[in-house]
Request: fold
Amino acid sequence: MPEQNTRHYVGLDVGKYKLEYSLDQTHGGQAPYNAAAIAVWIEQLQQLTHPVVVCESTGGYERRVVAALLAAGIEVCLVMPGRVRAFAYAEGLLAKTDPIDADLLRRFGQKMNPRVYSLASAATTELRELLDYRRLVVAQLAELESRKEVAGATLRSLLAEHQATLEQALLKVQTRLEAHLTATPELSQKERRLRQIKGVGPVLAATMLAYVPELGQISDRQLSALLGVAPYAKDSSQSSRPRHVRGGRHIVRRVLYMSAVCAARWNPILKTFYQRLRAAGKPPMVAVVAVMRKLACLMNRLIADPNFLLAA
Reply:
């Protein structure tokens, strides 16, 4: 990759209706968030020497402009909002407006040199959207179940009809997920590889493939931090406090937790590992998080090394 000092960092604050950008200390502006305005702005960026756009992940609003930038050959750094806000506090910056945020992102890129974002393949993107819809349906079904307990006769009958509709939608999306994995050889091969682990079901395997495209390409420590299962020290002087996990991709972590609970009961090796931690006095949640970490590292090894075999 080119040296950092040859890059021209551009800060981009993405809103629902407009884009606010900062080219340098004195030049910036805004544009409507539509395809025509994005195309004009990209032409402007292409006049710069090696532009690198820095923007925050804002819950999905950034996807369209990020895809357009990558398609035009412009590098993008997609950063966590918390890191940028901490950088602002370190600068002593308390004010927050769209122009201020855009310029803050530009300075963040210059100082921190964040990792360049890689767009997922079309197959992975479709898998992710199917899982997003499945998660939405499952959440609605859980809400209906809780409401039925206190509902009257009329509401209960209406909820039952809605529940039947949601169950059909869940069955349909599950069928589409299976068909999509079968029709994509690369994903299908990796999914079968992950399913070899006792405790890794179809939902966790698909979730790892959709939301962790780095699987098999990074170290175990990096993966643990990425998923939010790495314990961080909080020591000072002679005080040594308990380690805690934090951050990570919460969508993956939730599914990984349920699989770890299952693996701690039914996977012979991880069950022994869990029981050894409990016998050593570790709290149940600490032991489960350790199983989560072991499970993630095992999946990472399976994808990274095609010759790696699980213990019998």
